[in-house]
From TrEMBL:
Belongs to the IAA-amido conjugating enzyme family. Coiled coil: none annotated. The keyword Ligase applies. Residues 75-195 form the GH3 C-terminal domain. This is Uncharacterized protein. One of its GO terms (cellular component) is cytoplasm. InterPro entries: GH3, GH3_C, GH3_M.
Length: 217
């Protein structure tokens, strides 16, 4: 029988003492033979079969963006943003001031969210066709085979592009400074986790336009 241990908790969830937990790396321990290994996947309890928890895969540990079998790093995100900016925004004399991302698993299937702050005087007034093309290009620019396959099969939902107000990342900076972070060490987060509700609220409040990719329709 396998028991599941949340990495940051002392208590172990067993068949006889199930606990609802979400977002813990799975560490199965097999009762027979003291054999143990670590998967390194983040799972959540999606329900129970009798008293046994049924686990649902959430994402991979130590990867910046991952929802299914996809694996995308900070560099992969940067390459995707650069490719979209080069292919679409450059011709409109638009530049990316800053960007970040979020793996949204609040719905099933989950999807990537990319937040862009542009140099436009009025980001809300940027041509919608241009930003839709940018969104599609972003989605296609993630070349990881796991991502492409998951998008084609529908295991990952269309990428979401959120256009931000000018000055959004200054608000993010002030948020971190209010928490005691030194300004000299600040770097814009390239991926905002679900636990970072403060930054997610700033990004949501500063969103002026939203687009969903049609790249794999």
């Amino acid at each position: 029988m396998a028991v599941w241990a949340p990495q940051t908790k002392e208590e172990t969830t067993t068949k006889n003492s199930p606990v609802i937990m979400s977002g813990y790396p799975a560490q199965p321990k097999w009762a027979a033979g003291l054999y143990r290994y670590r998967l390194g996947d983040v799972v959540k309890v999606a329900g129970f079969y009798n008293a046994t928890p049924k686990l649902k895969f959430v994402c991979r540990r130590n990867l910046m963006l991952s929802i299914n079998i996809d694996k995308n790093s900070e560099q992969d995100l940067q390459l995707a943003v650069d490719a979209a900016a080069r292919a679409v925004l450059g011709g409109e004399k638009l530049e990316v001031v800053d960007y970040t991302s979020h793996a949204d698993v609040s719905s099933d299937p989950g999807h990537y969210v990319v937040f862009l702050e542009l140099n436009a005087a009025d980001p809300a007034a940027v041509d919608g066709d241009v930003m839709q093309a940018c969104c599609d290009e972003l989605d296609r620019a993630f070349a990881d085979a796991g991502y492409v396959g998951s998008r084609k099969s529908g295991a990952i939902a269309p990428l979401e592009l959120r256009v931000l107000q000018r000055g959004t990342f200054q608000k993010v900076l002030r948020h971190y400074l209010s928490l005691g972070a030194p300004v000299s060490q600040f770097k814009s987060p390239r991926c905002v986790s679900r636990s970072n509700s403060g930054v997610l609220q700033i990004l949501a409040g500063c969103t002026v336009n939203v687009f969903f990719s049609s790249a794999y329709d």
